[in-house]
From TrEMBL:
SUPFAM superfamilies: Aldolase (SSF51569). PANTHER family: DELTA-AMINOLEVULINIC ACID DEHYDRATASE. It holds the Pfam family ALAD. Belongs to the ALAD family. One of its GO terms (molecular function) is zinc ion binding. GO terms for cellular component: cytosol. This is Delta-aminolevulinic acid dehydratase.
Length: 324
């Protein structure tokens, strides 16, 4: 009548559970995405992401310093230009005085090599049409013309002190084009965290508010279809062949299968991005008293690590690093 096997034995006390826990979550595994906005006098909370702010340069420095003190592995910076500074070419992304490049210099000045400073290398925050690239006269996103802009953007970001660039626009050949340009300019040590498998996701919704995006239409001609997995493996292989130093899967929680497969085959470190909508879902449910916020946050991050992420980008990075 007695079960031969009793897996519950190893779950009985916190000490037993701690002894046999397979997955670790440490501050260094977490990267904090941050937004720096031009033309605001005080930090502005993003209404669909309670607790996440568009920063001024001063509040960016302070929040970044706090995150680094808490032990996070790095920072990923996004720029939010003034609406009137956006144009069809996304010129603000390339301008050394554009807000993202100014923000990168502020971080580099404040923190130097004490953390890893990453930059979003994509035009959507800077284009008036909101797409990740420049458009053909017919309104399609022009892959190869966009690569020329990415190269210029990458050089400006390297010049501003970024350690790792994060090409996130899903243009074909973006990693190789950026690698070639960085090397030719002498930035052989500046690396790329390539958004290799990036899906067209409804869960990016709150991010659009975060960066004041004016996107009309969708990104389905360049971001991946949620129905596909082989396509991701191909994207990962191509990015690695083009010189990616790390690859990323994004979003995280709806794509843990892709993350596991990527981690199993990738010779380079793998990151996953727990995106805005994932943050907002947990935050909203917790605000309603429907789930235990802190437990849900830790469970979500642990599951992303368990699925194979070496590094997790999460808006909770600074807070969770503090808990750990
Ligand atoms: C593109 C970019 C996006 C995000 C990160 N980089 C937006 C998009 O692809 O639509 C989304 C991040 C998030 O939702 O938290 N620059």
């Amino acid at each position: 009548m007695f079960p031969t096997h009793r897996p519950r034995r190893l779950r009985r006390t916190p000490a037993l559970r701690r002894l046999v826990a397979e997955t670790t979550l440490e501050p260094r595994h977490l990267v904090l995405p941050m937004f720096v906005a031009d033309g605001i006098a005080a930090p502005r909370e993003i209404s669909s992401m309670p607790g996440v702010y568009q920063h001024t340069l001063d509040s960016l420095r302070a929040a970044a310093t706090e995150a680094v003190s808490a032990g996070v592995g790095g920072l990923m910076l996004f720029g939010v230009p003034k609406p009137e500074d956006k144009d069809a070419q996304g010129s603000g992304a390339i301008d050394p005085d554009g807000i993202l490049n100014v923000g990168l210099r502020a971080l580099a000045d404040e923190l130097g090599d004490s953390t890893v400073i990453m930059a979003d290398t994509c035009l959507d925050e800077f284009t008036d049409h909101g797409h990740c690239g420049v458009l053909t006269p017919a309104g399609a996103v022009d892959n190869d013309a966009t690569l020329i802009r990415y190269v210029e953007m990458a050089l400006a970001q390297a010049d501003s002190g970024a350690h790792l660039l994060g090409p996130s626009g899903m243009m074909d050949g973006q990693v190789g084009a950026i690698r070639g340009a960085l090397d030719a300019a002498g930035y052989t040590e500046v690396g790329q965290l390539a958004y290799a498998a990036k899906y067209a996701s409804a869960f990016y919704g709150p991010f659009r508010e975060a960066v004041g995006s004016s996107l009309q239409g969708d990104r389905r001609t360049y971001q991946q279809d949620a129905a596909n997995r082989r396509e991701s493996l191909r994207e990962v292989d191509l990015d690695i062949a083009e010189g990616a130093d790390m690859v990323m899967v994004k979003p995280a929680m709806s794509y843990l299968d892709i993350l596991r497969e990527t981690a199993d085959r990738s010779p380079v470190p793998v990151a996953a991005y727990q995106i805005s909508g994932e943050y907002s879902m947990i935050t909203a449910a917790a605000q309603n008293g429907w789930i235990d916020r802190d437990a849900a946050v830790l469970e979500s991050l642990t599951s992303i690590r368990r699925a194979g992420a070496d590094v997790v980008l999460t808006y909770w990075a600074s807070e969770v690093a503090g808990w750990l």
